[in-house]
Predict the 3D structure of the following.
Amino acid sequence: TSEKWIINAEQGTGLYAQSWATRIEFPKDFIRENWSEGKQITSLYYARGVWVVILSKGSLYESQTWATRRDFDQELIRQKWEEGYTLTEVAYGQGAWAFVFSKRDHERSQIYQLSEDFPEAFIQSQWDQGFFINNITYGAGKWFVCMEKISASNHSYIKSRNYPKDWVEEKLTSDFKITDLTFGNGYWVAVATRTKSYTNALY
């Protein structure tokens, strides 16, 4: 496992009034309390024996739901898509998958893959169709990647045995934002997207 905690902080995201917590058990009570204050889940991870969750105001999510499953639940994802939700966070910890689904003011087409090998070919093929990485994580011996159709002027990722500090710094100084960062199966994976909505990133 990685011995590093990496924190990515940015200005200009529209998010504010954030709350965060680390819990050994899945933080359902903390999520419920912050939902009651009008906040929504904007980040969910599992690392080094704890769940890490961040909730924020200003996410533009109209409503949100979450679920945990011992096995990866394709039917749950399909059901939530049919209900108008999009998959916004996925994490794996303590032998369970955690899914967060959010409703937005407009639907976005999504596609995903779960595979033992890193999904490099899948990512490239979906880029060609206008899909970009929304979430990537590793759990139960498999890589999960979810991609969705968004407007992005540029999009790239790196997979590295060592934390890709130079790559991240180069992207942050080139009008990119780091949209996902994960560690799994001995690799760091960082995703960078160039948009016009985010400024002044640091980590």
Q: What stands out?
A: Residues 55 and 66 are 13 Å apart (CA to CA). DSSP finds four helices and 14 strands in the chain. Helices lie at 28-35, 74-82, 120-127, 165-172. The longest helix spans residues 74-82.
